[in-house]
Amino acid sequence: MNNHEIDYEIFGDDMQFVQVELDPSETVVAEAGSLMMMDDTIRMETIFGDGSGQGSGGLMGKLMGAGKRLITGESLFMTTFTNEGSGKKHVSFAAPYPGKIIPLDLSELGGKIICQKDAFLAAAKGVSVGIEFQRKLGTGFFGGEGFIMQKLEGDGMAFVHAGGTLYQKKLQAGEVVKIDTGCLVAMTSNIDYNIEMVKGIKTALFGGEGLFFATLRGPGTVWIQSLPFSRLASRVFAAAPQGGGESRGEGGIGGLFNILGGDR
User: Fold this and answer.
1) pLDDT (tens digit, 9 = 90+) per residue, 30-87?
2) pTM, rounded to two decimals
3) d(CA 3, CA 52)
4) For residues 127, 128, 130 and 133, what is the CA-based torsion angle, rounded to 10 degrees?
5) 128-144 b/e (C-beta count within 10 Å ≥ 16 → b)
C-alpha cells in the first residue's frame, strides 16, 4: 500500500467526530480547522497541498497541486498529524455541522471517489486530494456544486462529512436516480453524472426546488445527504429577525450581539 494504514472509531450520533489511531510514525492529513483533540506526542504541521507526494516535481509541481485546492475553494494548506511517540496515539476530528461522517476505504472503491468540494474531512497520508472536472459544461455552469468537484485517490482510508441523515444507494448498470444537486455527497468514479433542467416553467418557478437536478447513472455507489449546509444556512437566515426584532423582545442575532456587549 502507498498510504499509511490507520485505524479509526466514530463517536456520536448527530454531531459526530472520528478518532484516528496512529502507530509510531503514522500520519493523517486533515482540513485546517477540523481538529478536535490529540495526544501529547502527536506533531501537528502545516503543509503546502495534500502531502501525497504526487506534486513533488519541484516548486512548480507543488504550486500546481496546491493551486488545484484553491480552485475548489479550499485553503492552499492542509495540516498533518504524525505520531512521534513510541506507542499508539489518537487524534480526533469533528464534523463541522450536524450530520454523519462517512469512512471510505479507497482500496475497496476502485481507488477513487468524487465528492463535494467541502465534504472532505481527513485521510491517511498518501491519499491525493485533487479536483475533478465534469465532462459536460452544463454540469459546471448549472450544477449546484459547481463545475469542479473534489476527487480522493489512493488506497487508504478517507473521511467525508454529510449533513443530516446519510443514505447510501447502489445503482445497477443502467439504473438512474435524480438527486437535488446539493444533496449529492459523493459517488464512485464509474458513475455517469450529468445535470438536467426541471421540466415545466411552473414547476421550475413555483415548485420550491432548484431549477436543476443531478442525474446519476449506474453502475456504482452514491452517497446522499438529507440536509445540505446551504439549505440549513438559508433556513436559519430566513428565520432570523431582520431589524427591529430586539424591540419586540425577539433577541435574534441582534439581541445576541447586545447581550455580548456589542451595543452600549
Assistant:
1) 988 899 999 999 999 988 766 665 544 555 555 555 555 555 555 667 899 999 999 9
2) 0.78
3) 9
4) -90
5) bbbbbebeeeebbebbb
